[in-house]
Task: inverse folding
């Protein structure tokens, strides 16, 4: 072996500064010299850096969450640096590249102007929307400032589209009403369509809400009534707006008079874009269910639904249907009832909640009969608020006929009355001791009595300790919700604090009423919510946890003072103190005894364990979806094994289904190919080192050489994929790992040659996998790659051996009725 | 031992140039995940966490020119954490006010003033992980696939140099050299991303 190279030579090798020959020589030396290998590594980076790299990079390929990816995307696109008004496209814009962008404009004679369109002198851009650009312009004939809206070229692509658009716009131009922006003119020039409207100085309702949040009740009513009356005028002419949203409601400067803009244009735009790309554009948040379902001929009552959403936003400052992604929003619009107004803000009147709820009725016939009726009603309420003595309160709105049943179901309620009182006594006696000790101390100091000073200090110490101990007592509820442990803790005397899943979600002062909901994260389906309500009055403590009726299972597990056990330790300390303070006389011993007794009582308080509450589904529904066996233990009826695979699948003497990977992969499919929403369960035994998978919603049988498509749960013990991993196998190798198994170490989950339970729930996009009773996957697959299909078993590894038994399936009702 | 000097000024210095879009993209990719995860750990739902992340980073973009950090002390991370924490408090605060109609914001503020130690640890850990991930992403194209695999399989997957050499058809010496060279670049790149 050659001699080790020097430090400098190694350094030059690392930084590629050596000639080829020299490098070759050291490389050869490195081959066998462990000392130099380590030296080189150390030179590149110190040991902690290597560890850091290994730790961080090994975990760096986890999939990015959709919401995070969205944030990164939007941030990147918004660019660097502070925003200046010039960047903001709603502000004036007169950059030289504007001329290049708006090629349809003729050159203007006035410097600084953007260009000309017929007899309109285009001054600047005042807004951009999905439909096109809005310019501030000067009408050279009538000498007035107008707004010119030029529609994107896609809306004038064909003669039919142009005609239809013009027809709609002319119908809108015929509406003349105080609360509707009139259309002066519709023109076409060189294949470009533009509308001329008066300039409405002011801002949109959207901007107003963005800046100031929820509006005052009177403002909400005034604006709501004006929107409704504008809608009524248009509806009378047979015109439906179809895109009522805060951005389309203009508030005129000063008087803040409402002006609805873009009447009827949504439909024309829809038509154009459907012809163009087959995709519906628009703002899903304010759509009606019938629009969200893609129904073409919606009527005036669709606008009423949207009006309900606008009222909701004005009153609460938040959107009624909110979710990540257009499809999720549409889904909520169609199926979900928004959170009642008064739950968001209890100060709102119940009649407003009733009005919004009626506007939000899913069936158009359950909404108000006309916009005029809504305008009247809102106007009367406003008048009543302004002059309660002169104007009577309008009659309450009846709930819609098919009013949804109570959205939430109470699952658990507990009160900790007596323990709370123990705490109150502890707190008060602590205070009492403190006061008594202080008094005694003062008196003794005045009389110069040493014994008294000693006694006073001791009593004060005891008081402080009692205070401290009782304030440490916490009460805790624990429930399980779809496998997530949900813990609700209530700290007394130190302000209320609520924890869910170990995360602090709210804090408040003593006696405060705190209400939280919607805090369950990952994996909860659309509309699944947990409500935690704590009402800790001075002598009362309560907790209620509710979820939607569809919830799988909720079981409170424990309800107990947490620190009861530790109190014994404290007792010992207090007893020791008593001995020390023996010299303080009989009274000291008596007080001490009382404290020991009280602490003992706290320590002995037994944890109160409540039986689990199991909710199987909405009440009153017949049990038509019972478990059905998938495998009869005798033959393969109901199953298909593709020809080369059939010899790999056998039934053993115990009636178990045995699959061998000889050759692998090998598959067994259910005959039925339409399993959509279901709960599948069974037991699996994997021989050491075998890899296998269970597929569901599998699209088709395996063709020779082609992988099976569908959702795939890994159950084997292979080196590559961990058991419990859920993947989506799609055509063209567009495979994705939906959730890697990470909740528990692998060895605890699946043991070789041991039967374990496997469960899979597919409910719409919500996918759950349980192994051995543990939830290992609980995810919503937003991409919904696989809708329905077969159940399939697969042995992945050659010579692999996996057994199955007790395979059962229970089909679940679909979430959305077609 | 000579340190490899960063090839470019640190990210924060580059950030002050409003036209350096790459700096902004690096910045967003580096810090957004940590802020997002922090918000999620504090119980925000995904859409809210996404909003909060954007809000925090936008406000940083707005004030980056006026801030002067000592790059050696890692003050920026701490500052950003405080900012994220403050915004989160605002979020809880405004939500509480909305939900109850009346606010006890002083109380909320008081209770939230001290972020938990665990949060700070997660924060540092997240930032470090992102820095390594981004750095690896950036330098990977510089190296040949074999070199990269030699590094990855030995340093990250912890396989022995001999096994990897055999698999990749390299000499053991070449594997160690490849591994160390990649590490030098990785370290320099991580340093460049750090403020």
Result:
């Amino acid at each position: 072996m050659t001699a080790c190279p020097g430090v400098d030579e190694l350094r030059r090798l690392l930084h590629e500064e050596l000639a080829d020959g020299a490098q070759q020589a050291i490389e050869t030396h490195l081959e066998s010299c462990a000392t130099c290998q380590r030296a080189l590594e150390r030179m590149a980076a110190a040991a902690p850096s290597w560890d850091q790299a290994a730790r961080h990079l090994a975990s760096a390929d986890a999939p990015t969450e959709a919401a995070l990816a969205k944030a990164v995307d939007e941030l990147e696109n918004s660019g660097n640096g502070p925003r200046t008004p010039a960047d903001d496209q709603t502000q004036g814009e007169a950059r030289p590249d504007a001329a290049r962008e708006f090629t349809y404009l003729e050159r203007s004679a006035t410097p600084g102007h953007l260009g000309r369109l017929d007899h309109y002198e285009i001054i600047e851009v005042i807004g951009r929307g999905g439909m096109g650009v809005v310019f501030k312009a000067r009408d050279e004939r009538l000498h007035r400032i107008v707004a010119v809206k030029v529609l994107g070229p896609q809306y004038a692509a064909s003669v039919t589209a142009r005609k239809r658009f013009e027809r709609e716009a002319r119908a809108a131009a015929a509406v003349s009403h105080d609360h509707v922006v009139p259309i002066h003119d519709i023109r076409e020039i060189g294949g470009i369509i533009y509308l001329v409207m008066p300039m409405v100085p002011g801002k949109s309702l959207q901007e107003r809400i963005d800046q100031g949040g929820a509006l005052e009740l009177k403002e909400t009513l005034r604006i709501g009534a004006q929107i409704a009356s504008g809608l009524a005028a248009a509806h009378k002419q047979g015109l439906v707006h179809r895109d009522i949203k805060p951005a389309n409601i203009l508030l005129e400067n000063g008087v803040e008079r409402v002006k609805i803009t873009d009447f009827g244009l949504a439909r024309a735009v829809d038509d154009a874009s459907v012809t163009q790309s087959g995709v519906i554009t628009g703002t899903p948040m304010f759509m009606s269910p019938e629009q969200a379902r893609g129904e073409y001929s919606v009527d005036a009552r669709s606008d009423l639904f949207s009006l309900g959403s606008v009222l909701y936003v004005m009153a609460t400052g938040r959107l009624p249907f909110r979710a990540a992604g257009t499809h999720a929003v549409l889904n909520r619009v169609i199926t979900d009832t928004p959170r009642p107004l008064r739950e968001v803000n209890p100060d709102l009147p119940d009649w407003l909640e009733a009005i919004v709820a009626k506007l939000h009725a899913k069936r158009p016939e359950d909404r108000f009969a006309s916009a005029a009726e809504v305008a009247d009603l809102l106007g009367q309420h406003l008048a009543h608020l302004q002059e309660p003595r002169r104007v009577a309160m309008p009659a309450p709105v009846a709930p819609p006929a098919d009013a949804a049943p109570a959205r939430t179901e109470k699952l658990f309620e507990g009160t900790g009355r007596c323990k709370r009182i123990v705490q109150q006594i502890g707190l008060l006696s602590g205070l009492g001791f403190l006061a008594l000790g202080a008094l005694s101390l003062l008196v003794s100091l005045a009389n110069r009595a040493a014994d008294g000073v000693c006694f006073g200090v001791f009593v004060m110490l005891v008081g402080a300790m009692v205070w401290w101990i009782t304030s440490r007592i916490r009460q805790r509820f624990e429930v399980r919700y779809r496998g997530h442990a949900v813990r609700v803790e209530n700290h007394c005397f130190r302000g209320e604090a609520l924890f869910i899943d170990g995360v602090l979600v709210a804090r408040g002062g003593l006696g405060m009423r705190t209400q939280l909901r919607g805090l369950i994260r990952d994996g909860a389906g659309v509309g699944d919510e947990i409500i935690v309500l704590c009402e800790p009055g001075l002598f009362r403590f309560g907790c209620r946890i509710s979820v939607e009726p569809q919830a799988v299972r909720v079981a409170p597990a424990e309800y107990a003072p947490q620190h009861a056990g530790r109190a014994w330790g404290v007792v010992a300390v207090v007893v020791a103190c008593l001995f020390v303070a023996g010299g303080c006389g009989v009274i000291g011993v008596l007080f001490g005894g009382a404290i020991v007794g009280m602490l003992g009582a706290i320590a002995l308080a037994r944890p109160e364990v409540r039986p689990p509450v199991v909710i199987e589904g909405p009440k009153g529904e017949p049990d038509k979806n019972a478990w059905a066996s998938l495998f009869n233990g005798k033959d393969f009826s109901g199953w298909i094994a593709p020809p080369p695979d059939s010899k790999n699948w056998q039934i053993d003497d115990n009636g178990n289904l045995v699959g061998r990977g000889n050759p692998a992969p090998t598959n067994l499919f259910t005959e039925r190919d339409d399993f959509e929403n279901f709960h599948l369960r069974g037991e699996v035994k994997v021989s050491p080192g075998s890899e296998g998978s269970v597929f569901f919603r599998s699209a088709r049988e395996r063709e020779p050489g082609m992988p099976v498509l569908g959702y795939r749960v890994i159950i084997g013990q292979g080196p590559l994929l961990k058991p419990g991993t859920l993947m989506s196998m799609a055509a063209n190798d567009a495979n994705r790992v939906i959730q890697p198994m990470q909740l528990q170490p692998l060895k605890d989950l699946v043991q070789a040659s041991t039967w374990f339970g496997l469960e899979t729930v597919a409910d719409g996009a919500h996918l759950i996998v349980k192994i051995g009773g543990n939830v290992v996957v609980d995810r919503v697959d937003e991409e919904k790659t696989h809708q329905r299909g077969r159940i399939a078993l697969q042995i992945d590894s050659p010579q692999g051996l996996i057994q199955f038994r007790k395979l059962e399936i229970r089909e679940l009702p679909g979430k959305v009725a077609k | 031992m000579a340190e490899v000097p960063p090839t470019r000024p640190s990210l924060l210095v580059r950030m002050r140039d409003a036209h350096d879009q790459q700096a902004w993209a690096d910045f967003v990719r580096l810090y957004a995940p940590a802020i997002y995860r922090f918000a999620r750990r504090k119980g925000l739902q995904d859409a809210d966490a996404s909003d909060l992340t954007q809000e925090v980073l936008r406000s940083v973009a707005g004030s980056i020119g006026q801030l002067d950090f000592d790059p050696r002390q890692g003050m920026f991370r701490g500052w950003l954490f405080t900012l994220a924490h403050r915004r989160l408090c605002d979020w809880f605060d405004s939500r509480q006010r909305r939900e109850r109609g009346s606010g006890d914001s002083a109380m909320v503020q008081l209770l939230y003033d001290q972020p938990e130690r665990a949060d700070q640890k997660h924060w540092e850990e997240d930032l470090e992980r992102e820095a390594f991930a981004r750095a690896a992403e950036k330098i990977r194209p510089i190296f040949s696939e074999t070199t990269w695999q030699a590094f990855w399989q030995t340093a990250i997957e912890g396989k022995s140099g001999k096994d990897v050499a055999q698999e990749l058809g390299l000499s053991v010496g070449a594997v160690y050299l490849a591994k160390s060279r990649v590490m030098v670049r990785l370290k320099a790149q991580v340093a460049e991303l750090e403020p």
User: Anything to note?
Assistant: The domain at 143-195 of chain B is CATH 1.10.10.10 (Arc Repressor Mutant, subunit A).
